[in-house]
Design brief:
Blueprint lengths: L10 H42 L38 E5 L14 E4 L1 H16 L19 H8 L26
Antiparallel strand pairs: 1-2
Length: 183
């Protein structure tokens, strides 16, 4: 009887065997998943514990170089810009300082050649020398609209022999100026 081939298993036995193999495979996969998850959790806990310990590097202080400078970019703008105009028109004769040079109060920066002002000064000096009245010696119009000089008005009201009478000063137009200077 031993020569006889084995009899095929009935169908119910074959299904049972396949179900047991599937169950064994599912148990092996479940155990493998649980073990890998526990292993990962333990590894993460060890790494977190190592990272929780603060590592501090200490350095002994030393004196640095004395020429430590901090250079930052920037621009300077004025809160208020005031236009500056010359007292008179003219040409620059001499320029004593450059832009950006430090200056002191009262320091002469430039000389202006003002031919119009010099001409007015020479005219006032000539008027003073000849005794002619200047335009500044005119009085405002009278009540009837006529214009006359102060001297004429003064003469018409007071006698010529009044004590302490002096002629009007014509040198007020010059004001002590010399040609080539601005006062």
């Amino acid at each position: 009887m031993s020569d006889l081939p084995p009899l095929p298993l009935p169908a119910a036995t074959r299904v049972r065997r396949l179900a047991l193999m599937a169950l064994a495979l599912a148990l092996v996969l479940a155990v493998w998943g649980i073990v890998s998850r526990l292993s990962a959790r333990n590894t993460l806990g060890r790494e977190a514990a190592e990272a929780a310990v603060a590592t501090v590097a200490t350095v002994k202080p030393s004196r640095g170089p004395a020429s430590n400078t901090l250079v930052l970019p920037g621009s300077v703008q004025a809160y208020y810009e005031a236009p500056i105009y010359a007292r008179t028109s003219g040409y620059l004769k001499t320029w004593y300082t450059d832009i950006g040079t430090t200056v002191k109060k009262g320091q002469l920066l430039a000389e202006i050649d003002a031919p119009e002002v010099d001409q007015q000064l020479r005219q006032a000096q000539a008027d003073l020398a000849t005794g002619r009245p200047t335009t500044s010696s005119r009085a405002p119009p009278t009540s009837d609209g006529r214009v006359c000089s102060r001297r004429s008005r003064f003469r018409s009201r007071t006698p010529i022999s009044a004590p302490g009478m002096r002629p009007p000063r014509r040198s007020a137009a010059i004001g002590g100026r010399q040609p080539g200077t601005l006062g």
